[in-house]
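In response to reviewer comment 3 from the previous cycle, which asked for concrete evidence that the modeling workflow produces usable outputs, we include below a single protein chain processed end to end. The sequence was submitted unchanged, and the resulting structure tokens are shown without manual editing.
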Amino acid sequence: MALRYKLKHRVAGHAFGPLSSRRQKAILFWQEGQIQLEDVDGAILSTAPVTQRRHISGGPVLLEFADGWRFEGATSESDFPGVDRGRHLRRAEQLHPRLIILAIAAVCIGFGVWKYGTRMITELALWATPDAMVAVIDRSNMALIDTTLADPSQLPETRQAELQEIFAKVAAQIPKVSWATYHLEFRDIDGMGPNAFALPGGTVVITDEFADLIAQPDIIAGVMGHELAHVTQRHALRQMYQSFSSYMLITAIMGDIGPFLEDLLLEGNALMALSFSRTHEAEADHIGQNSAYAAGYDPTALAEFFTILKQQYPSATPEWLSSHPAHDRRIDSLRDFEPDTP
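The workflow returned the following structure tokens.
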């Protein structure tokens, strides 16, 4: 106990024993590198060196001793052992208008990481995806569709042959890619309406209702070119990786973000995915029109398809909540088509 009388500074607080959560009142004495922790009765708890110091400006100090003892106390003493992290750091932690600048800088940096980091992760994931895996995705999705959604096509063989001929002409104008083998499938899918969709490995599916509704070869060629463009541009995989990489980046930076922020982040990713979908749809429209044009079909006929859809399926959904561009805007863009120059 003689040491305490030689120590100039003291602060009251609470101590925790090694591997214990029991809280007890304690007093810390220190001066010039010497330190002693006692309980309120004067019994020495620790004189071991401090191994870790934590201090938030304006908050308590937490010290951890080499023998496992911990001490928590409130103090404004600048010479508290090992807590004085420098005048500049203390000033930076104080509330000041410069914090606004730091906050804005943090937001800008975060936006840059989100915008360019997710793009980089997405491109890396696409590059690392084996072609064989893409083929498996097509097969497994078709098996799932046939099991849960679709029935065999009821289209006559002559009609299927007509559609296959149009598809072959358009596919011949589409660049060959290593991850896709272009082929056309027919399915009777109740509730999907006149529709067509493409899987990442080159499988294009059109519904019987689409084949019954659309008779004009020019429109069919435009739709097939559009779907094949989704394949060559890897839109489906890109969108999936883009959404996942945003979540992965933020959780990597912030750690455990909790259920509320996780839900908010996932919902934000869903809205962001809608925006990517609209961009992808516009890109597929343009590439598809070019392919139909190169195959000898009228590229502006694709606008007629969406005119038909607008008449039969009017939508009040605002564009920012839709995965496809609004019909009117899309139709105008398709009618203004100009082929790419070689």
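The first strand starts at residue 9 and ends at 16. We consider this sufficient to address the reviewer's concern, and the full set will be provided in the supplementary archive.
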